[in-house]
UniProtKB/TrEMBL annotation:
Pfam families: VKOR (PF07884). It comes from the Bacteria. This is Vitamin K epoxide reductase family protein. It is found in: Membrane. Belongs to the VKOR family. InterPro entries: Thioredoxin-like_sf, VKOR, VKOR/LTO1, VKOR_sf. Its main location: membrane. Keywords: Disulfide bond, Membrane, Oxidoreductase, Quinone, Redox-active center, Transmembrane, Transmembrane helix. It is a multi-pass membrane protein. One of its GO terms (cellular component) is membrane. Residues 11-169 form the Vitamin K epoxide reductase domain.
Amino acid sequence: MSRRRRSPWIHRWSRPIIGAIAILGAINTLYLTVVRFLGSSTVCPTDGCEQVLSSRYATVFGPGNAVAFGDGIPLAFFGLLAYVVMAGLALGPLALNSDTHKDQRLVWEKRTWFLLFLGSTAMMLFSGYLMYIMATEFVIPNGLKALCFYCVASAILATAMFILTLIGRAWEDLGQLFFSGIILGVITLLSTLIIFAPIPDVADAYNITDNTGKVVFSVTQESTASEIALAQHLKDTGAVMYGAFWCPHCYDQKNLFGVEALSIMPYVECDPRGKAAQPDLCQQKFDLAKEQLKTEVGFPTWEINGRFYSGARPLSELAKVSGYEGPQDFQN
């Protein structure tokens, strides 16, 4: 008398587990997407979350990328879409009743397994590249305080889904799977490098660089007499903008002034990797700003007439708080 062989428990539970992981990833990236669109700060035990999530690497198709699309789209938004798709692929076939739609369920399970493998492979490799960027650009220069926990969590979740797709079922042709993974890996890495490639130098532009001369952003907006006059007034009255070369909010602020005004606008670089950086001065000012505003402050932070203002500000507001009375037909 033969006994029916039961499949390993991981084969029975891999799809629900992958789906649960994908839902956790979707919640993580949804929070980051909402925070980014609202212009708020993330809740994080370290400074790294805000530093990393405000860098040019947190925005896709933005002004600091080779392929530009307006001010860019939060990378977390694409992560959200990827996790939602993975959740659908993992849990979708389980919605079919195994008793009344057994054949259909088996067909859809077979079709979606390979898609789950491709999706988890691409997400793991992309997350791995972002971990490399975070380590080399932020953690190594600044220590563990620059660690972004949301980014690490997303990388762990993507890797877990990849592992579960491998061990979650009995693959018939591991050679084809391996070959497909290699091809997808090459495509993913090449696409990633193209997306994050810095834009080339632009003629008649104000290039924002690090201390090696590498261009991170380029301001091409022209200044009118109003922007130039406001920049001169801010300089004459001792106002200062404290920022970082990699900060997209700082780029937005500089873009409001335009190319000609930026050569006048008072600015202090706070990141040690930036050009002519003064991190110690920035730390002193940020401590004073936190004490005055009773809240955390980020880049950029303005100091005007003894008061601090955190975040990018409309030029009309800078004119008002600084006592500027010149022409105010700001075009940007």
